[in-house]
Amino acid sequence: MNGLGDMMKQLQGMQSQMQENMEKMQEELSRLEINGSAGAGLVTVTMNGRHDVKSVSIDQSLMTEDKEMLEDLLAAAVNDCVRKVEAENKSRMGNLAGGMQMPPGFKMPF
């Protein structure tokens, strides 16, 4: 019976450590800045690792273009940034899990 109690204590310790690591990673992701762009860099978007948009930059030369084109470039830059954030999050989550393979389509809980 003592073996089961020891195993439960060990599992609780692992859970606590995993929770601490997850909290630390969430803090790091909130400080992380990732850039996405479109139109050869004429539109750039900066997000943190939690998908919060921190800044948007639109080159002055685009101010004479039509509204639809500017909207398309902005959407493309945001999508580029989101893909980069997802890749970074997946990489960091893999490191947190000690190389354990995450299920396909796994999303961070934030």
Automatic annotation (TrEMBL):
<comment type="function">
    <text>Binds to DNA and alters its conformation. May be involved in regulation of gene expression, nucleoid organization and DNA protection.</text>
</comment>
<comment type="similarity">
    <text>Belongs to the YbaB/EbfC family.</text>
</comment>
<dbReference type="GO" id="GO:0043590">
    <property type="term" value="C:bacterial nucleoid"/>
</dbReference>
<dbReference type="GO" id="GO:0005829">
    <property type="term" value="C:cytosol"/>
</dbReference>
<protein>
    <recommendedName>
        <fullName>Nucleoid-associated protein MARGE09_P0973</fullName>
    </recommendedName>
</protein>
<dbReference type="GO" id="GO:0003677">
    <property type="term" value="F:DNA binding"/>
</dbReference>
<keyword id="KW-0238">DNA-binding</keyword>
<feature type="coiled-coil region">
    <location>
        <begin position="8"/>
        <end position="35"/>
    </location>
</feature>
<dbReference type="Pfam" id="PF02575">
    <property type="entry name" value="YbaB_DNA_bd"/>
</dbReference>
<keyword id="KW-0963">Cytoplasm</keyword>
<dbReference type="InterPro" id="IPR004401">
    <property type="entry name" value="YbaB/EbfC"/>
</dbReference>
<comment type="subunit">
    <text>Homodimer.</text>
</comment>
<dbReference type="InterPro" id="IPR036894">
    <property type="entry name" value="YbaB-like_sf"/>
</dbReference>
<keyword id="KW-0175">Coiled coil</keyword>
